Amino acid sequence: MTPKEKAKELVNKMLDFTDWHNEDAKSCAIISVDEIIEDLSLVWIEFISKNNDNILFISVIEKEIEYLKDIKQEIIKL
Prior knowledge:
This protein is mostly helical. It has helices at about 5-15, 20-50, 55-75. The radius of gyration is 15 Å and the shape is elongated. The two termini are about 15 Å apart.
């Protein structure tokens, strides 16, 4: 799923679940994405700090963080 598609899906889920306005749903979707980015960043930091050299795992986390940042930018554009 592209970041733009995922952004729309997240905002629509917020709208479906509540009677909020679009801007409120966008704000909640952004908060959700930020929380996931923060958690993944902590996992990444902990993994690196243990001198783990599993490049594949590190790469997957970095790509996921970038994907989430792209989703956040697409939510902002909606």
